[in-house]
């Protein structure tokens, strides 16, 4: 029996979001209906609302979520009703070349639920943000988008691993391969950069240098585990990072802004054999100009990080366990918890830049 729930809809480009009644079909083969307990407000939700991702309005927003599996469709064996799960953007196929090579984050054949959620009354089909749509009391996903984790964790904290926090931690531990004793620099200390700092700390980095243009962000970064902070409006960050690393540059530099000047800083701030990890997403017109001799003269690696290069079934339960053991602070990322009808207000606060995460709790 299809059911009706409340959900946050972005009706059209730049229009305010509103709470509407959404129809959730019963799960079909390979699908699951999840009762959402918490869902974080991410920049990507704002980008959907602004029409910056695509024009498939109306969107059902929300994609950093945790909840309880309510019902599953035919052929679903990995999760069962009652399981506490974190949702991820897409189920991977497990069969393609990328999956078989152990790099499922590059899977060629990812999928979401096949059936559509619709608006009650009009029957209009909804596009769920990142294939999730979790600013809703319940949502329909592919069962492969659900990862079971220890239910002892608070849902508001667990949901964060579904997007931004995983992207940052994964950039450090998966893509960057930060290891004990490394010097790490993180350029851009918003939610993603701060998560990269937490990841570097978890991996045992010796020095963690936070770079930002905003002193308030640097204060938060220090609380998240940065050992040094650099305000790049006051000093050249490349020189500062070199000075803080005995003149060598950082073993791993993580760029979490997405601008040409910070890409360039990341390139030059690394040790000759160091790794640059690009997490910040540039816009299509941005270009980076580098002398080829500098590219040739530096070994190491230049990598981009895609969803923290995470394997949800491996990384979500591990990070939740580390959190429950007191070894990974995730609570600090939750600035405030809000109600479903406060998402528009949360976007305004996000714009002002004074929150790490507002999390809708149900
Ligand atoms: N140099 C250093 N820091 C900068 C600069 C700069 N030139 N310009 C902006 N910043 C800082 C901001 O002060 C802020 O602290 O970068 C940070 C960006 O943080 P958010 O806007 O909160 O973005 P966040 O959610 O952390 O995402 C960062 O990662 O996943 C991508 O799409 C995401 O490109 C975005 C990036
Ligand atoms: Zn997100
Ligand atoms: Zn695949």
Automatic annotation (TrEMBL):
GO molecular function: mycothiol-dependent formaldehyde dehydrogenase activity; zinc ion binding
Enzyme Commission no: 1.1.1.306
Matches recorded under Pfam families: ADH_N, ADH_zinc_N
Entry keyword set: Metal-binding, Oxidoreductase, Zinc
Organism this protein belongs to: Streptomyces coryli
Cofactor: Zn(2+)
Protein name: S-(Hydroxymethyl)mycothiol dehydrogenase
Domain Enoyl reductase (ER): 12-360
Superkingdom as given in the UniProt entry: Bacteria
């Amino acid at each position: 029996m299809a059911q009706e729930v409340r959900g946050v809809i972005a009706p059209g480009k730049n229009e305010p979001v509103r709470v509407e009644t959404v129809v959730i079909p019963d799960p079909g083969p390979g699908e699951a209906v999840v009762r959402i307990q918490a869902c974080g407000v991410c920049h990507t939700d704002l980008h959907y609302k602004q029409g910056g991702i695509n024009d498939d309005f109306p969107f059902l927003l929300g994609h950093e979520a945790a909840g309880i599996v309510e019902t599953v469709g035919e052929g679903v064996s990995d999760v069962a009703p009652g399981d506490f799960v974190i949702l991820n953007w897409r189920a991977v196929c497990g069969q393609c070349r990328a999956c078989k090579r152990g790099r499922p984050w590059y899977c060629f054949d990812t999928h979401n639920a096949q059936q559509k959620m619709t608006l009650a009354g009009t029957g209009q089909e909804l596009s769920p943000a990142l294939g999730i749509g979790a600013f809703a009391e319940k949502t329909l996903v592919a069962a492969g988008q659900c990862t079971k984790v220890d239910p002892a964790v608070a849902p508001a904290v667990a949901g964060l691993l579904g997007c931004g926090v995983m992207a940052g931690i994964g950039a450090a531990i998966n893509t960057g391969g930060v290891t004990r004793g490394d010097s790490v620099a993180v350029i851009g200390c918003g939610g993603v950069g701060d998560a990269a700092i937490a990841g570097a700390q978890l991996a045992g980095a010796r020095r963690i240098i936070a770079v930002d243009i905003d002193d308030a962000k640097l204060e938060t970064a220090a609380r998240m585990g940065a050992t040094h902070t650099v305000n790049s409006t006051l000093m050249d960050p490349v020189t500062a990072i070199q000075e803080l690393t005995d003149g060598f540059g950082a073993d791993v530099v993580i760029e979490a802004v997405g601008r040409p000047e910070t890409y360039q800083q990341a390139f030059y701030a690394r040790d000759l054999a160091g790794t640059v990890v690009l997490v910040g997403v540039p816009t299509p017109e941005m270009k980076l100009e580098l002398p080829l001799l500098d590219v040739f003269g530096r070994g190491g690696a230049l990598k981009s990080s895609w969803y923290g290069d995470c394997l949800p079934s491996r990384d979500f339960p591990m990070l939740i366990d580390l959190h429950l053991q007191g070894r990974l602070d995730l609570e600090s990322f939750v600035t405030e918890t809000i109600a479903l009808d406060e998402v528009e207000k949360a976007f305004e606060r996000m714009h002002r830049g004074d929150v790490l995460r507002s999390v809708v709790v149900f």
